[in-house]
TrEMBL record:
This is dipeptidase E. SUPFAM superfamilies: Class I glutamine amidotransferase-like. It is an enzyme of class 3 (hydrolase). It comes from Sakesphorus luctuosus. The gene is Aada. It comes from the Eukaryota. Its main location: cytoplasm. GO terms for biological process: proteolysis. One of its GO terms (cellular component) is cytoplasm. Belongs to the peptidase S51 family.
Length: 244
């Protein structure tokens, strides 16, 4: 069994609440009392200082110290020494490019999949935890060397999943149509559409849907299915072709 522990959150802020407010109890349950400091990776936003201040304030209010990787002179060493990693939201392409530029893909994978340190992602940080960022909602404002991501789980996630609005006059593709287009390509993995307010907890080889809103699962060649909080998604972790 894998020692991995992941908390993959759809969104950082839920309507009517503050930063990470809707999932703060989940964060405390996830990190527990053993973790004293969290390594924050703010690469998805341009103003890393402001982003780190926001995250630090929140995590300190929950009883955890926070170090931002952008303040470290050696990002690789910061990952090697980290007790837990949190990657926040923003632009997924910008985030993934920075992870490659700083040579962190292999290091984060090793710390999470081999050493078993907790990994928390929100929005873009959830996208990069999966096989690839092919199912992000973000614009490709920069060009990472690959769309392959951390591969901490053998499927993809679509954070902020939106259901079609029957009253809308918008004629563009729905989120469901875009994911179906992705699955028209060969050998594409499952996509879990996480609505805002939903999150996936992965502990070893067990994956459970948490939060308040639910999720929609897309499998290539099949009709999408609806799932409520509490759903066991462990079957998604069984993969015969894990990323290298």
């Amino acid at each position: 069994g894998s020692p991995r522990r992941l908390l993959l959150v759809s969104n950082s802020t839920l309507h009517g609440g503050g930063y990470l407010g809707h999932c703060q109890q989940h964060i405390q349950n996830f990190l527990g009392q053993k973790v004293k400091r969290v390594l924050f990776i703010p690469y998805a936003l341009h103003d890393r200082d402001a982003y780190a201040r926001t995250a630090r304030e929140k995590f300190e209010s929950l009883g955890y110290g926070l170090d931002s990787i952008h303040e470290s002179c050696d990002p690789v060493e910061a990952v090697r020494k980290s007790e837990a990693i949190f990657i926040g939201g923003g632009n997924t392409f910008r985030l993934l490019k920075a992870l490659y530029d700083n040579r962190l893909i292999h290091e984060i994978r090793k710390r999470v999949l081999e050493d078993g340190i907790p990994y928390m992602g929100s929005s873009a940080g959830t996208n990069v935890a999966t096989i690839s960022i092919n199912t992000t909602n973000d614009m490709p404002i920069v060009y990472p060397p690959s769309l392959q991501a951390l591969g901490l789980v053998p499927f993809n996630i679509n954070p902020h999943y939106l259901d079609p609005d029957v009253k809308s006059t918008h004629m563009g593709e729905t989120r469901e149509e875009r994911i179906r287009q992705y699955h028209e390509e060969p050998n594409t993995p499952p996509v879990l559409g996480l609505r805002e307010g939903a999150m996936l907890l992965v502990e070893g080889d067990k994956a459970t849907l948490q939060g308040v809103t639910g999720a929609r699962l897309f499998l290539r060649g099949k009709k999408p299915t609806e799932h409520k909080p509490g759903t066991d998604f462990s079957f998604l972790l069984i993969d015969s072709n894990p990323p290298n």
